Amino acid sequence: MRVFVTGGTGLVGSAVVAELLGNGHTVLALARSDASAAAVEAAGAEALRGSLADLEALRAGVARADGVIHLAFGNDFSSPEALAGNVAEESTAIGVLGEELVGSERPFVTVSGTPLTPGRPATEADPVPTDGPVGGRGRAVTSALGLASRGVRASAVRLPRTVHHDGAGGFAGLLTDIARRSGVSGYAGDGSQRWPAVHALDAAVLFRLALEHAPAGTSWHAVADEGDAVRDIAAVIGSRLGLPVESVPAETYGPLGPIFASDQPASSAHTRSALGWEPRHPGLLEDLANIRP
Fold this sequence. Notes:
Blueprint: E1 2-6, H1 11-22, E2 26-31, H2 34-42, E3 46-49, H3 55-63, E4 67-70, H4 80-101, E5 107-113, H5 135-145, E6 153-159, E7 162-164, H6 170-182, E8 185-188, E9 194-199, H7 200-213, E10 218-221, E11 225-229, H8 230-241, E12 245-248, H9 257-260, H10 269-275, H11 284-287
Parallel strand pairs: 1-2, 1-4, 2-3, 4-5, 5-6, 6-10, 7-9, 8-12
Antiparallel strand pairs: 9-11
Helix pairs in contact: 1-7, 3-4, 4-5, 6-8
């Protein structure tokens, strides 16, 4: 299958591109810079120059593909306005990608986060949030899944709080970055809130399986660790960086503060059973030992 991938040079995207190429697919990856294009080509894929905001490039990519995996998302979390801009840009892109696939029966794999379900781990049957800081993303992905009735084999892979590789990535990576800058390995509240996690290489396998096999309108959880306590995550980060480990105000994390303070374990029991997905790489706490002091 020839697969058009957005976000193909990020932590998750680069792993997905390698997974696809390693399993007989060819890849056309969106590249917004010369450096990204070079990385795509070095991986063995073909680059298509353009950004997520370049709607004509998105249409061109879909026209040349047998299936689409959408992974791109802005990395500016500096303010509520910046986060809202990221969400709005992605929502428009998802809409364009989906419309170009209508009536083709081609697969369209989108991405979102695991939902919050107070008092229990979230499951694949739970809806993603459609309000709050990233509610727009939930609305866009829900709309994409609705394309199942219009001849698109749309599915969604839900990523947990942290997708990690060699100690980097996800919300745990943000905790590490903030710890380096502030001199404190912090956590919001008492740190008992739990974050699910997955290794990027395991997540990549699930994206491939969804592309190849997921029925239209379905959602899947790329969750290996159901929920690590944030204070345990902060403790490993503090140990690796030689920093004190302390509770800090949720405001430390800007617009992500409410999310960082919430308890959000998630299950992947259905995903493992239905798609035969089985994580094989190190869990988050073990992988964080790779953080460079």
